[in-house]
């Protein structure tokens, strides 16, 4: 069976297919219809690192397809706290579950886990590596919002800002957007937190027009999407933490949007955002502003994750046959 470990494994056709399946999931995700298409199936939802959205939305998505979920969090839930390997844990969990979602602080760990099992494994974030389901829901959001605005992906200009070094969501998203090249991408990161050069070179070879700017000063009026990410201090080395002192402001707030961006700019963030003062993150002063798409993103996480399960487990053609009205 196949896994979803990285955007690398998805072609443009695969992504388009997932978007179409997700659109068909909307009546279920918005609780107008129910299905039992995954009745009897069990999901192992294994989180070795903190999560709100990804953990709960994968759980809800599997449940809304009629399946059951073994939901676990933290190293202490498992015998890995006693030194059990990823390999043994994977072999054991494969005997209990039909699909596994896993988040882990080490890059490559989810792939290592997946190599020991034939059960489909979804990478829900492997340290600073990738977070493919987040990129898919971000792309689904952009696609949906652009359709409403009458914009095309081909002419899009996306600004990615914040921690582009440790932000796994931007690593997956830039790879995904490279499937839709040509498209313009501008990267703005604090010093030391830049997007890895290797990744920039790779997506540029695939046709993305990537520009790097040092700050949020200047004109961004032709940007369609501002995608902000949190500075991930928990991933800093001790040396980086000690010397980290920003001389410029990287906050995306109402003043930035009103003075430097166009009126229809979409503001996105994978969340969580750091709402503490001087966090250099997406400011809460944009709450309630229609340009702020962050909670439309979180809502879109349900149909997209349902589409991922249905496709990996091969039931996507049965969804429409199995729909019933919500009885409550
Ligand atoms: N976007 C995201 O991965 O959020 P959580 O860490 O809360 O799952």
UniProtKB/TrEMBL annotation:
Top enzyme class: transferase
GO BP annotations listed: 'de novo' pyrimidine nucleobase biosynthetic process; 'de novo' UMP biosynthetic process; amino acid metabolic process
Keywords attached to this entry: Pyrimidine biosynthesis, Transferase
Ranges where the Aspartate/ornithine carbamoyltransferase Asp/Orn-binding domain occurs: 156-311
Catalytic activity, reaction form: carbamoyl phosphate + L-aspartate = N-carbamoyl-L-aspartate + phosphate + H(+)
GO molecular function: amino acid binding; aspartate carbamoyltransferase activity
Family matches, as SUPFAM superfamilies: Aspartate/ornithine carbamoyltransferase
EC number(s) per entry: 2.1.3.2
PROSITE patterns named in the record: CARBAMOYLTRANSFERASE
Domain Aspartate/ornithine carbamoyltransferase carbamoyl-P binding: 3-143
GO cellular component: cytosol
Pfam families: OTCace (PF00185), OTCace_N (PF02729)
Pathway annotation: Pyrimidine metabolism; UMP biosynthesis via de novo pathway; (S)-dihydroorotate from bicarbonate: step 2/3
Family the entry assigns: Belongs to the aspartate/ornithine carbamoyltransferase superfamily. ATCase family.
Function: Catalyzes the condensation of carbamoyl phosphate and aspartate to form carbamoyl aspartate and inorganic phosphate, the committed step in the de novo pyrimidine nucleotide biosynthesis pathway.
NCBIfam families: asp_carb_tr, PRK00856.1
Name of the protein in its database record: Aspartate carbamoyltransferase
Species of the source: Halomonas ventosae
């Amino acid at each position: 069976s196949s896994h979803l470990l990285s955007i690398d494994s998805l072609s443009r056709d695969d992504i388009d297919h997932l978007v179409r399946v997700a659109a068909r999931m909307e009546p279920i995700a918005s609780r107008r219809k129910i299905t039992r298409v995954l009745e009897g199936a069990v999901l192992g939802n294994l989180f070795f690192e903190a999560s709100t959205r990804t953990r709960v939305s994968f759980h809800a998505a599997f449940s809304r397809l009629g399946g059951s979920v073994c939901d676990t969090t933290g190293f202490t839930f498992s015998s890995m706290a006693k030194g059990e390997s990823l390999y043994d844990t994977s072999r054991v969990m494969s005997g209990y579950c039909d699909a596994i979602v896993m988040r882990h602080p080490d890059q490559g760990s989810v792939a290592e886990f997946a190599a020991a099992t034939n059960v489909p494994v979804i990478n829900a974030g492997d340290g600073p590596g990738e977070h493919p389901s987040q990129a898919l829901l971000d792309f689904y959001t952009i696609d949906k919002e652009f359709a409403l605005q009458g914009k095309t992906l081909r002419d899009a200009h996306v600004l990615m800002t914040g921690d582009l070094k440790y932000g796994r969501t931007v690593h997956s998203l830039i790879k995904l957007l490279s499937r839709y090249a040509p498209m313009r991408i501008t990267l703005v990161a604090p010093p030391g937190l830049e997007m890895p050069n290797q990744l920039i070179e790779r997506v540029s070879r695939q046709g993305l027009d990537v520009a790097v700017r040092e700050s949020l000063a200047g004109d961004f009026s032709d940007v369609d999407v501002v995608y902000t990410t949190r500075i991930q201090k928990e991933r800093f080395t001790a040396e980086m933490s000690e010397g980290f002192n920003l001389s410029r402001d990287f906050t995306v707030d109402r003043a930035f949007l009103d003075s430097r961006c166009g009126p229809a700019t979409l503001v996105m963030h994978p969340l969580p955002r750091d709402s503490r003062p001087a966090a250099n993150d997406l400011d809460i002063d944009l709450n309630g502003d229609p340009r702020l798409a962050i909670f439309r993103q979180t809502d879109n996480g349900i149909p997209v994750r349902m589409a991922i399960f249905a496709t990996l487990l091969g039931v996507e053609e049965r969804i429409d046959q199995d729909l019933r009205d919500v009885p409550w």
